[in-house]
Amino acid sequence: MQFSMSALRRLLAGLAFGCLALSTAMADAATSAPEPIATRIGKAVEAWTGGRYQAKSVNATPIEGLYEVRIFNDLFYVDEAARHSLVEGEMIDMQSSRNITRDRLDEILAIDFSALPLDLALKQVVGKGSRRIALFEDPNCGYCRKLRADLARLDDVTIYTFVYPILAEDSEAKSRKAWCAPDRVKAWTDMMLSGVVPRNDGKCETPIARIRDLGMELGITATPTIFFASGRRLQGYASPDDFAKLLAENSSVVKR
What is the pLDDT of residues 41-88, one digit of tens each? Predict the structure, then answer.
């Protein structure tokens, strides 16, 4: 469940003035000193969106003359002339069956797990707890509840839960009540599994504001969002089999 970049994609896909804006940006560039291609494309894309969005990065792709543009946590592709763009779709290497777009997103959205402020999280150790994940959850998130039920069946994991109320008006109230319960971990887990909200006024001191700032810094726009020890990010729900595979593959911390 998320407030994703779908609005941005609709904007990019539906901009009737796109070609005009891109052409104008290119004409402006042509009258000034030559610029690096990435800079020129970035400016053209920003002009295309009417200045509403900034290109966070522009990089070459394996296809000559085609460039990857990142806005927030989304990637799309623009040609070298900054005239045509591919907003929807993924780049696939058909020889290796590698999803280049997905691999690039995994790379650019990864974090340094050791830099997370784990003291702000609810810590739950299951079994030996040798494998670690950080989980951003909203109490009104249906897929979070589904994932939480799957996590309850794991036998060797430490779960750091960051309470991240972003989905509904009462999300923060529910989060505060869980945090203010005598046993925070149990209260949160029970609420996610059964929907039972703790009975207290929720007026204790909580780290929710700091966690919200952290989420914005990390570009988290959806729940659940999971970070594995390797730093890899998983946004959204994954089936138990897929999650188990990701957990096994990403249990080691990547040295940065």
Answer: 999 988 988 888 889 999 999 999 999 999 888 898 999 988 888 888
Paired sense of beta strands 132-137 and 156-163, if any: parallel
pTM of the model: 0.79
| Residue 217 CB neighbour total at 10 angstroms | 9
Task: Check if CATH label 3.40.640.10 holds for domain 6-109.
Answer: no
Instruction: Give residue limits of the domains in the chain.
Output: 6-109, 113-249
> Is-contact 140 163, C-beta < 8 A?
no
Q: Which fold has domain 113-249?
A: Glutaredoxin (3.40.30)
* Distance between CA atoms of residues 65 and 57, nearest Å: 16
Please tell me the distance from the alpha carbon of residue 41 to that of residue 59, in angstroms, as a whole number: 10
Selection from 176, 183, 122 nearest residue 151 by Cα: 122
pLDDT digits (tens, 9 = 90+) for 75-93: 989 999 888 888 888 999 9
User: What three-state secondary structure class fits 50?
Assistant: coil
